[in-house]
Design goal:
By secondary structure, the chain is mainly alpha-helical. The chain has one domain: Four Helix Bundle (Hemerythrin (Met), subunit A) (Up-down Bundle), CATH 1.20.120. Helix content is about 50%, strand content about 5%. It has 5 helices and 2 strands, in the order ααααββα. It has helices at about 1-10, 30-50, 70-90, 105-125, 150-175, and strands at about 135-140, 145-150. The protein has a two-stranded antiparallel sheet with strand order 1-2. α2 (about 30-50) runs antiparallel to α4, α2 (about 30-50) packs parallel to α5 and α3 (about 70-90) packs parallel to α4 (about 105-125).
């Protein structure tokens, strides 16, 4: 009888409340620009955590001979933000090839963060019309097509997210601790 009462008390124990993010009632009325800015800001904070998790002195780490080193991969984030900025300002043009990554890993991370702040300000001050129109960019091997600007901005953001996942593997292999990204990691558990 006592065992049944203990079991009943365990079942009746209050459950822990889990915080759940709620959408703002006005979220559905956000402009495409505001929705992009919200996503961009959230993703940048996470990308910075991952970039900063690379152990000191590991900028030249390369998991495979065909892979970019960590420094070169980090520079991809800088390039993509620059492409976003050029797109919003109607200055994006194909050609010229990829610029060479600077040799200082710390400088790349600092530039990525500084360029982010400038890009956030550009997005905020640009009228909604600046996000209309198209930009020419590859659509496949040897193919160039017109991308709607907003779709191109999201493509650059999603590509950053893709490379951030790739970068988290570099962090782990280089002996660093992978931070939580969209949920807990082996190094940053939530419970």
């Amino acid at each position: 009888m006592a065992t049944k009462k203990k079991a009943a008390k365990k079942k009746a124990a209050p459950k822990k409340k889990v915080a759940v993010a709620k959408k703002s009632a006005s979220f559905s009325q956000w402009s495409p620009k505001a929705m992009f800015l919200d996503s961009f800001q959230k993703e940048h904070a996470t990308t910075m955590k991952v970039l900063r998790a690379l152990p000191p002195g590991q900028g030249e780490f390369r998991p495979h001979p065909r892979s970019q080193c960590a420094r070169e991969l980090a520079f991809t984030f800088v390039i993509e933000q620059n492409l976003m900025s050029l797109t919003i300002r109607d200055q994006f043009k194909l050609g010229g090839g990829m610029p060479k990554a600077p040799s200082d890993f710390g400088m790349i991370v600092d530039q990525f963060d500084a360029d982010y702040n400038a890009l956030v300000e550009l997005i905020k001050k640009s009228p909604d019309k600046a996000f209309e129109g198209t930009v020419d960019f590859p659509t496949g091997p040897g193919k160039i097509g017109a991308w709607p600007k907003m779709e191109f901005l999201y493509f650059m953001l999603r590509d950053q997210i893709h490379h951030r996942g790739q970068y988290s593997i570099y962090v782990r292999m280089a002996g660093g601790k992978v931070p939580s990204i969209y949920g807990p990691s082996g190094d940053e558990p939530w419970f």
